[in-house]
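User: My collaborator and I are trying to settle a disagreement about how two of our proteins should look. Neither of us wants to argue from intuition anymore, so we agreed to look at predicted structures for both before our next call. Could you fold the first one, then the second, and keep them clearly separated?

Assistant: That sounds like a sensible way to settle it. I'll keep them separate. The first protein:
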Amino acid sequence: MKKSDKSEYPVILAIESSCDDTSAAVISNGKVQSNIISSQLIHSQYGGVIPELASRAHLQAVGTTVRAALERAKINIQDIDAVAVTTSPGLAGSLIVGSHFAKGLAIRYGLPIIPINHIEGHLYSGCLEDDSLEFPFIALVASGGHTALFYTESYEKYTLLGSTIDDAAGEAFDKTAKLLGLGYPGGPEIDRLAKQGNPAKFIFPRSMMHDGTYNFSFSGFKTSIRYFIEREFPNGVPQEILPDICASAQEAVAEVLVAKTMRATKEKNADAIVVSGGVSANSRLREIFAEKASKTGTKLVIPRMSYCVDNAAMIGFAAARKLIEYGTEAFRDYTFCVSSSALRAERKH
């Protein structure tokens, strides 16, 4: 890449550490040159993420992960134009590790640093996956900590239509898996077993599916699963029943997510849907979305698995757009802080 092209096509080193995955990526010319993800397996024995253990693991992994990303991209740190890092929302200790490491690199090499909201990264991961995607589109971001619908009009203008009022979809899967005695994270386990089960065997609540809003609620679903197990299988769920419960539970969550998203697409007159976040890896959710989108002639973009999970590629992509829009001098402030807060209802520039 020519030196004169750098302002238009920045080379960005991105770092993501919002929860229990340490990730680093290099974005060059708008393309992903590397996307390294180091997952923390230690949390599986506890049935959930332990914040202190997560931050310690990030400390051990961040340097190695960044070096691996640079090596995979076949680039030196001196060739980087800017550093990007996730600053919210997430676990405070985890965010601090990534943020401080990124600040250290930026100060050492005199680079601009671009703070990025994790949800914003997911929001635009569809654009990273498919560069033919056009605005406006409806974006569903569904993960272990977040479930939200956005009306996205440009890279700098989006509106939060609705979000969960209690549990997120991914959390509902994790808690269901725990009640069934399955491993953590629960989403992949439920997906795996559901493939062998009957989704119509049991009926679980589709909370708020027809309430007229774009909000979600999964706490009642989770409680329903617990009462069902206590009532029907007080001595433990037989192994042969697990697939049917998983399939039925998965169907309930998926139907709510799809119904709300499809209604938003129709009411906002959008031509495309983006489904992102860890829950978008669920195979049944992808199937239902594909069926509904095909019937309505709606473009559907669901990123590849490596862009669904927490990853630095989406952080770098979002940062590249901001750097092109505002220039390097807009990102010389190294004093920003991390935050656990999610996106506000509307963002416009």
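The second protein, kept apart from the first:
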Amino acid sequence: MTLNASPVLDGITASRITTSRLETRVLFSGSRNDTPVMFLHGNLSSATWWEETMLSLPQGYRGIAPDQRGFGDASIEAKIDATRGVGDLVDDVVALLDELDIGTAHIVGNSFGGSVVWQLLMEHPQRFITATQVAPGSPYGFGGTKGVHGVPCSPDCSGSGAGLVSKKLCSFIAQGDRSVVSPFSPRSALRNLVFKPPFIPKREEDLLSSMLSIHLGEKDFPGDYLVSQHWPFAAPGVWGAANALSPKYAADVTRLYGIVPKVPILWIRGSHDASVSDTAASDAGRLGQLGLMPGWPGAAMFPPQPMLAQTRAVLSEYKANGGEVKEIVIDGTGHVPFIDKPDEFNRHFHSHITSSRLR
């Protein structure tokens, strides 16, 4: 497999790394002796999204960003077993740290990458100096839950997983479409759901290429699903990232409260995030509320998932158990504030990682 067609910026190097678990492309900035900062990208993206942030790291820090399993130039043979939640990706990160002979690192996750970070902290807190969660998925998973404690709306978690992914979007990705001919085209999704309109990033073409590089198939994206007797009549299957995010397979969030050591967490997000919010644009409860999905059973049975309220409640409990937490909202930005407003993002991010000493 060749490396991703998107060119890397000056100061970024791309290497093909084989660990005990995965062969993939890994981007690097800084030098081998610098303090490592591991970046995990979101869904429908790749390590490409982190390049500017990596280059902006303070002196003495080394950026590391892999294409995660199922994305970009990760080995096409490597699949995500969704019944483990994001466990496959958690194990991939630890294997990469081991391969690079890194004992501890700062960890940064965006969206889907943030979901991986939640479980990394639960299972391997001793490997991380700080955690930065950039618009992370709810610790309870994406879709099909209600209330701040993430109670499933149905016993089979219908309303989450691959069955809710737009077939039109998948078709456009398969065609390599780069137009704005439809609101379901990849470029339209970037402009309307990832960034806050009318913002268009300078590297839109590279980011779009990254989006189009997601692995497609029943065991990849969008994955498989089951017909459900519960609204909206699609329950998660067992393969791929979309199913891995289902609350059906989410890790027990109470494990986070007892971790030792307590890793300092920065939760930073955009004020106009349409992808992860209490009114997320692709959440079945929100779509039903808006009349865009027929048969909605009402807010009592299937409300919009309160993703932000769930994350805030979990982090409040983490803090109550001795953890250090800071929440930052960057005004006028969407799902990736590190691209929308990099200077403001970096001010908070750099302060977070430089204020914590190496353990």
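Some points you might bring to the call about the second protein. Residues 13-354 form a domain with the Rossmann fold fold (CATH 3.40.50.1820). The two ends are 38 Å apart (CA to CA).
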